[in-house]
Amino acid sequence: MENNAKKGVSRRRFLGTTAAGMAGLAVLPGLSSCKEKPAATDKVIRMGFIGMGRQSMFLLNGFLQIPGTQVVAGCDVYGRKRKRFEQRVTDFYAKAGQKAEVNTYEKYEDLLGRDDIDAVVIAVPDHAHAMIAVAACKAGKDVYLEKPMTFTIKEGQVLCQAVRDNNRILGIGSQQRSDPNFQHAVELVQSGKLGKIEKINAYVGAPPTPYNLPEQPVPDDLNWDRWLGPLPGDIHFNNELDPPISLNPPQDEQFWGAWRWYKEMGGGFTTDWGAHMFDIAQWGLGMDGSGPIEISPIGDGTEYMTFKYANGTVMTSEPFDEKLTKGVKFWGETGWIEVARGYFNASDEKFMPAETAKDDGPYETKIPHQVNFIEAVRERKDPVVPVEIGHSSATVCNLGNIACDLQRTIKWDPDTETFVDDEDGAATAKLSYEYRAPWKLI
């Protein structure tokens, strides 16, 4: 089978929008075709946005177009981004011939305090995901939360409890689960068409590095203390952490917020892309809600971050092509398949998706990811990626970073979510961190 790895019987690339192809944006072209209006008796879902950066703008574009939703509020610690949000929402409704009022806030607590908001979209840096999402659940709001679900494993445990205790709907922005190529790949694996899965290449990229950007002056309209939230207060500002924009002339962020690449604030590629590709691998293996039992870092007897599962399957963050495509390759007894954004390849033509899948595009499905969340809110049922799946996928990512941080192999019990043979307690200590006062998780 190794010899077959160098060539596929056929290859099809399904090209999406330029933005989606660049960096995993939640651009859902299918939303523009959702023209069916809700029944007169259906309650309009009134929405608030917390975090108004680059990813939030793509999510806003999608949710604005879903019938039966109304965006009424937004929140960000950066003043100019609040103004951009207000302008875009107001312009959208004006062009649609609708009169709408939108309010913006610096403090998320003020937005959550509004009784007229049903659901919130949280697209802030990872370190604030859990804190704000838990507060939203307690305020009676349903939540669409960007991936990775949480910054630490302990935060994920607390958020799962908060969602269920407060009877909330929480969906995760792991939109690949609404992509026909990834759905087809998982169906092949779970139906046994590839035979027993022996190994998986789930390439995501490198772990985070220590923060090393030079200090720069904090913009006058940015509340840096609130941006940091529970993180240590001695982390200094740099424009790359919260990329600037201009309102006149209009110019959006030219790059992604760099906080994600530094261990003090994010999880590097391990969480940024692992929340997508490790997520698909877990789904295919039937490991949603579970996880690996042994995790080895780069350099501990392996060239790549390695995850071993109880059934014997080994997953590595190892490229499957020379282009270093971020994607997943499932190696089975009877063949292999490769799946990535806008791409599918297989060892045999019989494993390829139907020709009609090409017309759907990489992020468009019959029921797009964001539409699925709104339907879940209406029907009071779990969306395609509920909180427990978001937690188990984020946990795999965090375990990889913990192993790399400790520079040794660690053992994990996915049932109890505890480390095994952690005699010095070093791994257990990395399940959480102490929040800076006065910030609290619960």
UniProtKB/TrEMBL annotation:
Q: Which organism is it from?
A: Prolixibacter bellariivorans
Under Pfam families, the record lists: GFO_IDH_MocA (PF01408), GFO_IDH_MocA_C2 (PF19051)
GO molecular function list: nucleotide binding
Instruction: Report the InterPro entries cross-referenced here.
Output: Gfo/Idh/MocA-like_OxRdtase_N, Gfo/Idh/MocA_oxidrdct_glycsds, Gfo/Idh/MocA_OxRdtase_bact_C, NAD(P)-bd_dom_sf, TAT_signal
Q: Which residues form a coiled coil?
A: none
Q: Which Gene3D superfamilies match?
A: Dihydrodipicolinate Reductase, domain 2, NAD(P)-binding Rossmann-like Domain
Query: Which residue intervals define the domain Gfo/Idh/MocA-like oxidoreductase N-terminal in the entry?
Result: 45-173
Domain of life where this protein originates:
Bacteria
- Record protein name field: NADH-dependent dehydrogenase
Provide the Gfo/Idh/MocA-like oxidoreductase bacterial type C-terminal domain boundaries. Answer: 212-440
